[in-house]
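User: I'm new to structure prediction. If I give you an amino acid sequence, what do you actually give back? Let's try with this one:
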Amino acid sequence: MIQNSHGDDNSAAAFFDPGRNCWRVPTAGRLALVIDGELYFAALRRVIRQARRELLLIGWDFDFEIEMLPGESDEDGNAPDGLPNQVGAFLEAVVEQAPDLHVYILKWNGAVIIAPGRLLSSVSVLVSSSDRIHFALDGKHPFGACHHQKIIVADKSFAFCGGIDVTENRWDTSEHLPDDARRIGKDGAPLAPWHDVTTAMTGPAAEALGELSRARWARATGETLTPPDAAARDIWPDNLKVEATQIKVAIARTEPPYDSEPLINEIECLFLDSISMARETIYIESQYLTTKTVCDALCARLSADDAPEIIIINPEAALNGFEDKSMHALRGRAISRLQAADRSDRFRIFNPVNSADEPIYVHAKVMIVDDTLLHIGSSNLNDRSMGFDTECDVAIHGHADLICDFRDKLLSEHLGVSPEHFAETLRREGSVIAAIAGLNPRQGRGLRPIVPSSETVMGKLLADTRLMDQRYFDRHDSKAGEGLRPRHIAMAAAGFAAAYVADKLWKHWRRK
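Assistant: Good question. You get back a string of structure tokens that encode the predicted 3D arrangement of the chain. For your 512 residues, that looks like this:
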């Protein structure tokens, strides 16, 4: 376990700049780094059961019908802890046992459009559950943007913040086994392997995330929540290893301009500052690779005489064909730019596969720079996360052992070796790229180079217009942006629909 030192505090204070590359830099009494859904959902149940006054669930999506511990339900649908395994019924049972507990669930309203079937479970929780479970859809963002933060806070004492949503297709083990019978959808269909990361923390850092969550609730609903007046409680799930204590944690945000509020792009500034300071290695895990400013910064480092190694872990393909045509056409262009800038063979981009050579979907959002900076959150390396959607990330500066151990743990998972074996290989080879090459098998669990596919006509159109990857640049102009705007598409679709209906009505009237 890492304990804070005065020197680490000084390095964090020198690097983090509240109001520019972060919001605040509070202290986390305890910190854990959580890899993959199996560990996260087990820990989440333990945290929720310990809440007594206030539970804030702020997220892109919530699915109240999923089982938190797949494959562990008894014949009554209960998990081994004796409470219902499904999210919605579990929350109802917890509230029934804690008479002073209020639960606030804030979900992006667009998630209802993406998965309308989940609206029914949301409504059932709202209608049939305790009046101390409060549910709201967050629509207070520019058209086409989304609320993408993933934060859970219990009694202003404990917080999760990172990339894992409490929804379907997020649970998986770190082995990402092929044909895992527990990794199935509600319809019984098998789900693809899934890799994800979040953080857990206590102390002032958790209190700050609670304040941010209440502010988001107020913006979405108009209701101001009063934080619990009791002192912070000692909440910690017993299945999470405490990896650091009394450690400074920067909280960074993206918030689009809305209701006269300016653009906040602290996360983008944090990414750019981190890339600029890199000496030896930049390690990235992200769902996408399309943001222009970050790609520009990476290209600049690759073209320098002292270029660091840059290793990026991405999914092989997007979750659907439309998204793949748009976002991965943009990724292909970014890869081409990075390869052209790479004068010293220092750039690699991979996708992970499991023991059956099945692609593992990468949903994690991580940047690790040398042994100096660790950055985890909800933001992807796309323009939306830099200046269009609502995001929240956390970062640590200093604490070299903690940061290197976490990087080694992530890469050892992808390569199917122990963290100790990876660290030993890294020491022997002297570079992360060489260590990957020495441990990466041609078949089975490992990393495969990503080779961009040719752009289709549709993909080129979507990429040129950046329809799926909008952003704002100006801090105060809520109309400022780049590319074809979603409202243009909506207006065109509405016009087409109106013309179609009018034509049908006219033909029906003529037949009469």
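You can read the tokens as a compact description of the fold. Here is one thing that stands out. The chain has a mean pLDDT of 89.
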